[in-house]
Amino acid sequence: MKPKITVVGSSNVDLILKIPRLPKPGETVLEGEFSTAQGGKGANQAVAAARAGGDVHFISRVGIDDLGKNSLTAYKKDNLNLDYCVTDDAASNGVALIFVNAKGENSIGVASGANGNLDRKQVRKAAHVIESSALVLMQLETPIESVEEAITIAAAAGVPIILNPAPARVLDDNILRSVSILTPNETETEILTGISLTSDEHIRRAAQSLLEKGVGTVIITLGARGVYAANNDTNAFIPGFTVTPVDTTGAGDIFNGALAVSVAEGKSLSEAIRFANAAAALSVTKLGAQPSAHHRDDIEHFLRTH
Ligand code: RIB
After folding, report:
1. Which residue range is the domain that position 197 belongs to?
2. In a mutational test of the pocket of ligand 1, which residue from 141, 255, 256 has the highest number of ligand atoms less than 8 Å from its CB?
3. Would the pTM of this model clear 0.90, i.e. be above it?
4. From first to last of its 306 residues, what are the pLDDT tens digits of the chain?
5. Domain with 208 in it: what CATH number?
6. Cβ 112 under 6 angstroms from ligand 1
7. Candidates 11, 118, 141, 249: which one to mutate for ligand 1, based on the most atoms within 8 Å of Cβ?
């Protein structure tokens, strides 16, 4: 049976310009190729988890406009349960403008739209969904009150919480002490801990400081290098897979979606990280966030052949 995973978070439509290099302030760069794709950190993680084998319930908020309507149609095709995904009757859909350069690196600006109205009350209405989940997955692209409420409900019910602290911001210790698995990238780790990650020793120290704040397990994602994972029993650098990047947008989201499924299935931490690393590696070989979330068969095939 598929594990029930609740994702609380944002939904955007991404307007993507693949361009030779990222423009500097005041600069115009020609030769772009334009495309659109479903995005938003919450939706990317929800879709990645569904394709990786989860029964995903998505608590989110889309706009009253066509972008919102089309998003719901897309999520239904991925079998997301949308009972608590609300169409905001006053706000437009979240939109991200994304430049992607020839190396697959990106630069992103977001207009939150309806995501900005995902409040405590909306999350509270879905309390029974959270309470009956195998795991809850969250990010920080919706108001912090939505994250706090979901954490309160999940923690009271003993439901494990994965928090991907993106985009970066400082977090209260009350939040950190309820998190089972925290998955910051390097920038987010620096902002959460105040420690610059200039060496492996600094990475270890930063992870340790998060464990001391009460986080269960810390997985610091290090891009192509893989991850550093630490908890009270174990710590290790776990390498990723080498691929030629086309677009790294959403790779962290795909990692989290796949990780959530594997953890909810009861896999060991190292197995779950290997599965998530494979999903993330596959994702950077394709343009767009949700278009690059692979299905479980593809991830397992990649793992067998690498
Ligand atoms: O993490 C990638 C995502 O960040 C994009 O899909 C974009 O919508 C922004 O939310």
Report:
1. 4-305
2. 141
3. yes
4. 999 999 999 999 999 999 999 999 999 999 999 999 999 999 999 999 999 999 999 999 999 999 999 999 999 999 999 999 999 999 999 999 999 999 999 999 999 999 999 999 999 999 999 999 999 999 999 999 999 999 999 999 999 999 999 999 999 999 999 999 999 999 999 999 999 999 999 999 999 999 999 999 999 999 989 999 999 999 999 999 999 999 999 999 999 999 999 999 999 999 999 999 999 999 999 999 999 999 999 999 999 999
5. 3.40.1190.20
6. no
7. 249
Which of helix, strand or coil describes residue 58?
A: strand
CA distances from 59 to 77, 138, 217 (A): 16, 10, 24
Burial 123-142 (b: 16+ CB within 10 A, else e): beebbebbeebbbbbbbbbb
Distance 193 CA to ligand 1 centre (A): 23
Residue closest to 290 by CA, chosen among 7, 92, 83, 29: 7
Q: What ligand 1 atom has the least distance to the C-alpha of 141?
A: 10
Structure tokens at 132: 């009956």
- Residues tagged active-site: 253
